[in-house]
Amino acid sequence: MYTDTERCVRAVQSKDARFDGWFFTAVRTTGIYCRPSCPAVPPKVENMTFLPSAAACQQSGYRACKRCRPDTSPGSPEWNARADAVARAMRLIQDGVVDREGVPGLAARLGYSSRQVERQLNAELGAGPLALARAQRAQTARLLIETSELPMGDIAFAAGFSSIRTFNDTVREVFALAPGELRTRAGKGPRQVRAQVPGTISLRLPFRAPLNPDNLFGHLAATAVPGVEEWRAGAYRRTLRLPYGTGVVALTPQPDHIGCRLALTDLRDLTIAINRCRRLLDLDADPEAVDEQLRSDPLLAPIVDKAPGRRVPRTVDAEEFAVRAVLGQQVSTAAARTHAARLVRALGEPVADPDPEGGLTHLFPSSQALAGLDPQSLALPLSRRTTLTTLVSALADGSLPLAADSDWESARARLAALPGFGPWTTEIIAMRALGDPDAFIPSDLGIRRAAKGLGLPSTPAALTARAAHWRPWRAYAVQYLWATEDHAVNFLPA
Fold this sequence. Notes:
Elements: H1 5-13, E1 24-27, E2 32-34, E3 48-51, H2 54-59, E4 63-64, H3 78-81, H4 85-94, H5 97-110, H6 114-125, H7 129-147, H8 152-159, H9 164-175, H10 179-188, E5 200-205, H11 213-222, E6 229-232, E7 235-241, E8 246-253, E9 258-264, H12 270-280, H13 287-295, H14 301-306, H15 318-327, H16 333-347, H17 367-371, H18 382-396, H19 408-416, H20 423-432, H21 445-454, H22 460-466, H23 474-482
Parallel strand pairs: 2-4
Antiparallel strand pairs: 1-2, 1-3, 5-9, 6-7, 7-8, 8-9
């Protein structure tokens, strides 16, 4: 995108927010970089240069615009729509792997050398993994400075800086303000929401409009596992297992953002928690591109036009979702929740809910905890017990890696090799746990009913052939097709 100068100039001159996060505008005469929708008067074309990432801008000596705050724009949709090495690397960097394991750890997870990873990221993003991680630390620091009353030393530690000096220097370099000045400026006109509950951090998660919250939050609320998830007071709430500790998040749909309230046992998990919540709600999607492609099918166009901007509800924990997918095989939503709740009560790790009226009590059991489960204690048919225990064993011993950086086709092949894993289970995991935007489940009964009602082919083979025109967004087509049915997953809870 950033190499198409004419298109970038048009986006900047029209202040088109759809391109926020796709690229950044660096202004040679002022030394600042902006998002395309910056409200300031657009600079002269000859003074603009376009870069693919905030890290590339910072590495080139530009500082963030104080007016449009480019560091708070939605993320690039590319990293959730691709499964190549660069996209997988970006998902891992967002999940804090470079801060925890360094560049060698990132490279090892990708199966490349550190030099190869550096070369690929620099070629596509104009910055290497250390610069990308540094930009993320700066964004986290700004968030904590503006939305909390934490001392600056604690913020530096939580954001992942090695010293107070590095923290101060980075904030001044990136934002052209000292940390204390950033806090003072935020107090005069905060753009984030300061926490109202002690021990919590409240912020806004941006997205590209439109966003239809009905199926997104409806699905999460209708399938919520008691003790781990709940819908309360207009918010979806759940517990989080994070690298340094645990957390509880409340996500509230608003017209122009998602309200996010986080309570963490270790603030070093803040960036990771935010990125997992963004992934859960598919907030970095490009709905205009998705809907335009699906509208090209005249039989899909009416349901897309009726409620555009549907997202794919995903997960904060791929292994958890895989277990829940098996529990949900050939049973009702209520029965799947009951089975999962039993596992939670038996093997879940207790957590404290920061809301005295909340009902969150546990983390979903880890694969290691589930590996010690007595199969006889499961109220499941023998064949499904075998499916579940085989899956858990593969997750626990690492032979089935399921995470944000998983290669989609490799994971599909490993899942399909397990007993009891047919196309439906494999594809629903690919869609919601791995984030493949082209995952498709033509054998699903609800999809077949919806297809028939719209005049689309209803047999799996014929529907798959028709759906070739919807690629690479078939997972979004699934959301639109499911939404034609009168089911709780399609409605925002009261």
